[in-house]
Amino acid sequence: MNANTVPACRAADYRSEVKPIWCPGCGDYHVLMAFTRAFVALGVRPEQVAVVSGIGCSSRIPAYTNCYGFHGVHGRALAVATGLKIVRPDLTVVVASGDGDGYSIGGNHFLHACRRNVDLTYVVMDNHIYGMTKGQPSPTTEPDFDTALTPGGTGLRPFHPLVIALASGANFVARAFSGNPAETAAIIVEAIRHPGFSFVEVLSPCVTYRPDQRAWKDRVHRAPVDATDDAARAARRVMTDDGFNLGVLYRGSRPAYAPRHDTAVTDSAELEREFEL
Predict the structure, then answer these.
(1) Which residues contact 40 (CB under 8 A, 6 or more apart)?
(2) pLDDT class for 229, splitting at 50, 70, 90?
(3) Is the Cβ–Cβ distance between 61 and 204 less than 8 Å?
(4) How far is CA 170 from CA 20, 131, 175, in A?
């Protein structure tokens, strides 16, 4: 091997020494596996990747990787990731989130991250429940799903993340299933390579508080139509699907946000003059 050649990384090179503490059977184990496989396929080294998260079971992922990581506050991961990508465009920035963290307190950030179209990838592990805080309904919980806090269900229409992403301007939209980590990894690879804001919903069962989700492995199926570059057509498709179609739904062509990097002002006197009235 040439002395200047950097050896290729293996999946294990992206995993930290911290042992995951998810419940047995949690789909997030396979999503973590998909992350590491995706990084191998992309050929990026751990120090070239930043994994950002908020709060929740899914948001533990940065601790379990050997990449740069930022474990932020609830719902604010996209704000952190946006700032990071703008000042460090050389990094591959991936955000790990869940349906509670991403669609409830983080819902407004989700809308505007799609709109801004910064070149980063948002992976949301959706299990239709708050797992870490013991089974409360989340924005994607079915209206009639019974919990201790909401006997008989919430009666509320669920949040529809793929439609919201399309309407808000996401440049890449896809759905995957944690039970198929190879396919999930392939979708994450494509999402990272696609310019602009990429959104990947991963159906990731919570077998502790939603044991009924064990049946998801029999319900998921490949989408019967190919991806489109027409957002309106993609929206019509996703509004009429059963929530278990897998694959890439939409590949947009909007240019990624490219901020102007002016020369930084380092002289304090010059900086003060800019604020003179």
Answers:
(1) 8, 9, 10, 11, 14
(2) very high
(3) no
(4) 31, 27, 14
- Dihedral of the alpha carbons of 241, 75, 63, 259, in degrees to the nearest 10: 90
User: Alpha carbon of 61 to those of 31, 37, 144, 222: distances in Å?
Assistant: 9, 14, 31, 26
First CA to last CA distance, the chain = 63
State how far Cα 268 lies from the chain centre.
Answer: 40
- Residue by residue, DSSP assigns 187-200 as HHHHHHHSSS-EEE
Averaged pLDDT for residues 247-260: 92
- Which residues are paired to 95 by β-bridges? 52, 122
- Using one digit for the tens of pLDDT, what is the confidence trace for 45-95? 999 999 999 999 999 999 999 999 999 888 899 999 999 999 999 999 999
Extents of the domains making up the chain: 18-274
The pTM (predicted TM-score) of the whole model is 0.91
Which pair of structure tokens corresponds to residue 208?
A: 């502790």
Per-residue H/E/C for 121-148? EEEEEECCCECCCCCECCCCCCCCCCCC
Paired tokens of 215? 């049946």
Domain 18-274 CATH class label: alpha beta
Considering only CA atoms, which of 168, 166, 131 is closest in space to residue 28? 131
